Prior knowledge:
- With 330 residues, this protein is an alpha/beta fold.
- The chain folds into two domains: 5-175, Thiolase/Chalcone synthase (Peroxisomal Thiolase, Chain A, domain 1), CATH 3.40.47; 179-327, Thiolase/Chalcone synthase (Peroxisomal Thiolase, Chain A, domain 1, 3-Layer(aba) Sandwich).
- It is 33% helix and 24% strand.
- The protein contains eleven helices and 13 strands.
- It has helices spanning 22-26, 33-40, 54-69, 93-100, 117-130, 154-157, 206-210, 220-241, 259-269, 280-283, 290-300; strands at 5-14, 18-21, 44-47, 78-82, 107-111, 136-143, 163-172, 177-185, 193-194, 217-218, 251-254, 309-316, 320-327.
- The strands form four sheets. Strands 1-7-6-4-5 form a five-stranded mixed β-sheet, sandwiched between helices. It has a four-stranded mixed β-sheet with strand order 8-13-12-11, sandwiched between helices. It has a two-stranded antiparallel sheet with strand order 2-3.
- Strand 4 (78-82), helix 4 (93-100) and strand 5 form a beta-alpha-beta unit.
- The protein is globular.
- Acetyl coenzyme *A is lined by residues 31, 35-36, 39-40, 114-115, 154-155, 158, 193, 218, 220-221, 223-224, 227, 257-258, 285, 287, 316-317.
Amino acid sequence: MEKIFAGILGMGHYLPDKVLTNYDLEKMVDTNNDWIVERTGIKSRHIAAPEQATSDLAFIAAERALKDAGIDGKDIECVIVATESPDTKFPSTACLLQDKIGAKNAAAFDLSAGCSGFVYALAVANTMIVSGLYKHILVVGAETLSRIMNWQDRNTCVLFGDGAGAAVVGQVEDGYGILSIDMGADGSGGQFLSQPAGGSRKPASHETVDAGEHFIHMDGSEVFKFAVKIMGRTAENAMKKAGLNTEEIDLLIPHQANIRIINSAAKRLGISMDKVFVNVDKYGNTSAASIPIAICEAREQGLLEKGKTVILAGFGAGLTWASIALKWSK
Length: 330
Ligand code: ACO
């Protein structure tokens, strides 16, 4: 059987209008701009308007991706939304999005893999395309983490932001698109980054709400140690699986959580920072949306012409990690 190559046919992203700077945060919680910039590299983040839910952000990004790919919603056969902040537990945000874009012929489901979610979803879409199951899949990373943020907890509220990025995935020219995938998980570290209540373990109750257990809880230093170890390793694995060496990488697009984590991954890989895409300063950590937003901006900046070799590398809640080596095909 003829080998099929899957890749990105079109992309779009969206960031809500409201910008929350470190100086704004200084007025809300005991923190300061210097601490946040020095420890994280973040200067500002975008926050969804009260009437905007995750599917609304996803919808704008998806419409832009469809337009970029020249594809109509009805030609999409599957919608996958990677998110940790769905509109509701069910129906899935993917089903809500499927309706909004008129993807009447599509299956739809959400995928939970924390900040690795978009890369996981791209890997799933790749399998569906190369197996011949579907021709066009919409893969979205979208978050409104501001809704599950404890704005009194300086350990977390300075780190995250809202946003969405979307990709139409389909068949590309032979030798282009997704070259390799590396994914993994370590559930033993799940407690380091979680939303403890609201599920079957701790259903919503007055007590769980009073205890703030519907907010993001994070052991920052444990997640930091994990991230520093894993991000370089998973990117390296994807490179090895694709038979690529460091010199052949044109651009590393890492999950945008913290500039120190990005620096250490680049160092491990021996990739100079001028080949590493960074926008964490503007948007903070948008979780599953961070990598597709970064891809869109890298492309807008002319860094992704046809034939460029790119590594996407993420880590996140779960704990999870995922990397993809990609030969840009547009
Ligand atoms: N402003 C001022 N001081 C602060 C703040 C803040 N916003 N937050 C913490 N501090 C204080 C702490 O209380 C601590 O004070 P103490 O020494 O008196 O106790 C001090 O600063 C140092 O805290 P550390 O935790 O040691 O600081 P660190 O250098 O480790 O940076 C950070 C903290 C930025 C959270 C870091 O650990 C980190 O980036 N971790 C990874 C987080 C991450 O990437 N999460 C997302 C994962 S992806 C996903 O799936 C969502």
